[in-house]
Amino acid sequence: MHAMVYRGPYRIRVEEKDVPPIEHPNDAIVRVTKAAICGSDLHLYHGMVPDTRVGMTFGHEFIGVVEQVGSSVQGLQRGDRVMVPFNVFCGSCFFCARKLYGNCHNVNPNATAAGGIYGYSHTSGGYDGGQAEFVRVPFADVGPTKIPEWMDEEDALMLTDACPTGYFGAELGDIKEGDVVVVFGAGPVGLFAAKSAWLMGAGRVIVVDHLEYRLEKARIFAHAETINFAEVDDIVVHLKKLTDHLGADVAIDAVGAEADGAFFQHVTAAKMKLQGGSPVALNWAIDSVRKAGVVSVVGVYGPLFSAVKFGDVLNKGLTIRANQCPVKRHWPRLFEHVKNGVLKPSDIITHRIPLEHIAEGYHIFSAKLDNCIKPIIVPGSN
Ligand SMILES: NC(=O)c1ccc[n+]([C@@H]2O[C@H](COP(=O)([O-])OP(=O)(O)OC[C@H]3O[C@@H](n4cnc5c(N)ncnc54)[C@H](O)[C@@H]3O)[C@@H](O)[C@H]2O)c1
Ligand SMILES: [Zn+2]
Ligand SMILES: [Zn+2]
After folding, report:
1. Atom of ligand 1 minimally distant from the CA of 214
2. Ligand 1: which of 209, 350, 364, 374 to mutate, most ligand atoms within 8 Å of CB?
3. 308-357: per-residue pLDDT in tens?
4. The whole model's pTM is what?
5. Is 161 in the pocket of ligand 1 (CB under 6 A)?
6. Is the CB of residue 208 below 6 angstroms from any atom belonging to ligand 1?
7. How far is residue 306 CA from its own chain's centroid?
């Protein structure tokens, strides 16, 4: 089969690989019909994630058709169209019992913190991902769901990560009726967080980024006010002025460890490797939220950080909530929203790229070229 393969930072290509075999009776092999590239894949692509092994296939957002099932699989059969959440999870451990699917204790022998994620380095379990013609799906009776007849396939694809993660970001913010919510990052996750904030009762939603074309999308897609942080002297002071000098009630970090906007952080992180990235968006969130406010973090961070303003978290009495999104927990509610037309997740897709050209897809998305917001990969389409 053809699969995307990692060869080192900024170097990926399509290679011939063996179709993955069934390794466990509850595995399924899925023929991928659509996959997506996530902002999280960019951290891998940029060489930011430890133990990203040469030869790995990325891709944790994918849908497809069941090709083969192991002997114990009961809920799926060959030919079923399935959507697969990005988390690999067992469904029965302490954490899965609490619907914390991103924290499953049985799927990642390499760590006790991170759970399992398809195509996300050996720090997330070492599972090959879905940017390929075929992918092995463990716990086939637990993770995947048959795509409802009425659901558009591109909507289903966006429901495997970006949409639920944005929704989860808003949920972690514990938004109260009328709250002022500021979202850092107007990528796919930030856009869905902003849109979801309204669903949870926000009275005002402000999105911050420095890419004008994405801010335009935030205005149209999420009906948000927007601020280009590169066009104001000090984004925190600016936000304070907009919020009666108290600050926002809730701040959502949908940027993560590769934030732009602070030279010192960039030097200590990317150049000197003194910390695992730049926490500038997180610090802006901490600074711009009001005392006793909530900071929700869905942007991805590695373990090592030194320049987070923790003293301010303490002295302001902030609540910080963060996690990998437990995708499947949100499906029942999000399916309703999609069915009723409240959400149209595929609206954010800007590029549809054949698997053979995936290297170009990564380059366009990484360099934010051609007004790219969300590229999807279609195997066998050229
Ligand atoms: N927690 C989870 O389960 C989960 C799931 C998916 C993605 N993520 C993470 O969410 C983050 C966003 O993902 P995405 O797909 O939207 O990525 P993306 O790269 O498309 O978007 C990030 C956006 O942040 C903007 N940005 C950079 N620095 C900023 C700053 N200082 N302030 C405000 N905006 C800034 C960028 O211009 C870009 O538009 C990534 O870190 C990704 O790894 C987390
Ligand atoms: Zn993702
Ligand atoms: Zn589990």
Report:
1. 39
2. 209
3. 999 999 999 999 999 999 999 999 999 999 999 999 999 999 999 999 99
4. 0.97
5. yes
6. yes
7. 24
Cβ(204)–Cβ(181) below 8 Å? yes
Q: Which atom of ligand 1 is nearest to the CA of 325?
A: 3
Nearest 5°: phi and psi at 164? -60, -35
For residue 274, pLDDT over 80 is answered with no
Cα torsion angle, 47, 193, 161, 99, sign: positive
Residues 6 or more apart in contact with residue 102 via CB below 8 angstroms: 87, 89, 115, 323, 324, 325, 326, 327
Our mutation pick for probing the ligand 1 site, out of 37, 40, 58, 207, counting the most ligand atoms within 8 A of Cβ, is: 40
What structural domains does the chain harbor?
2-161+326-378 (3.90.180.10), 162-322 (3.40.50.720)
Cα–Cα distance measured from residue 257 to residue 346, given in angstroms and rounded to the nearest whole number: 26
Nearest CA to ligand 1 atom 42: 40
Q: Write the residue with the smallest CA distance to atom 27 of ligand 1.
A: 259
